Amino acid sequence: MGRTEELAEGAGPFTTKLTWRNAEGDIAVWESRAVRKLGALTVRAAEDAKAVRHPADTRSLKRLGRLNTIAAVAFTIGGSLFALGAAYALTSSSPTAGVSIYFAGGLFFNTGGYASLLQAVNAPRRRSGSDTLEPVPWRWWSYEPMRIDWLGTFLLFAGTLVFAVNLLDSFLEGLTSRQTNRLVWAPDVIGCVLFLISGQLALAEVSHGRASLRVHDLGWWIVAVNQLGSALFMVAALADFTVPGTGNLVSATVADWGTLTGALCFAVGGVLQAFEHP
Q1: Which has the closest alpha carbon to 128: 256, 205, 20, 53?
Q2: Helices and strands in the chain: count of H runs, count of E runs
Q3: How far apart are CA 122 and CA 141, in angstroms?
Q4: Calculated CA dihedral for residues 221, 34, 106, 269, nearest 10 degrees
Q5: Is the dihedral of CA 203, 196, 70, 89 positive or negative?
Q6: What SS3 state is found at 54?
Q7: What are the structural domain ranges in the chain?
Q8: Model confidence pLDDT, tens digit, residues 175-234
Q9: pTM for the complete prediction?
Q10: Residue 103 and residue 99: Cα distance in Å, rounded?
Q11: Which neighbouring-strand residues pair with 55?
Q12: Cβ pair 11, 200 in contact under 8 A
């Protein structure tokens, strides 16, 4: 039986899922997140409702597994440190120690963001006309903006770098309200926006462009929890604006609680991510 035309699904210009019938008449399914995270596509015999995973080569699986572990551990520790920093800010009057804790957590967020990008860069590719995956040479970087997984993880990593600017500038003392908003608050908001866009792309990827509740899908839960964390980070950032003239924050309490709860979401997401591996 010849290979039939592919059925493509996705969001906007991005393809997140392909379904086709292979030469044996079996139904094969390629999904962007499943290939990046699990290193496999699925094949279901025409007369059998049970799908079987067709994994990539062993080297690719080990590579994806290591990167997933690094990202999961980094986000778990980074989120925990951010939560600790927020808790410290709520109970202490020493801002320097709290900023130091945040900065340490930010380094782990940088690591997790880059490991996530490397997963997309080095994920195996579907061999044209077949239901097998072929490895790609190891790369530290690529430019593939028309792949939703690459774009989402790139924006995530970029967001962690902007947060690093925010955290470094937080060590500066004697700033005016205008300087604080420009050097500390603005990078914080930009980082939150990048996180939210990245999370929206991740939701579109896992749901194939359709808003849906996928309670039995671990990937969906990871993305949803992280997106909630990003939204809480944005609430915290908006509340951290310094009002010109008074020098007071919009709400220091909301800023600290928003950071605390958002960070816990990322820590939980990191723990869940440890179970989504080849």
Answers
A1: 20
A2: 8, 7
A3: 9
A4: 20
A5: negative
A6: strand
A7: 7-55, 58-273
A8: 899 999 999 999 999 999 999 999 999 999 999 988 888 989 999 999 999 999 999 999
A9: 0.93
A10: 6
A11: 40
A12: no
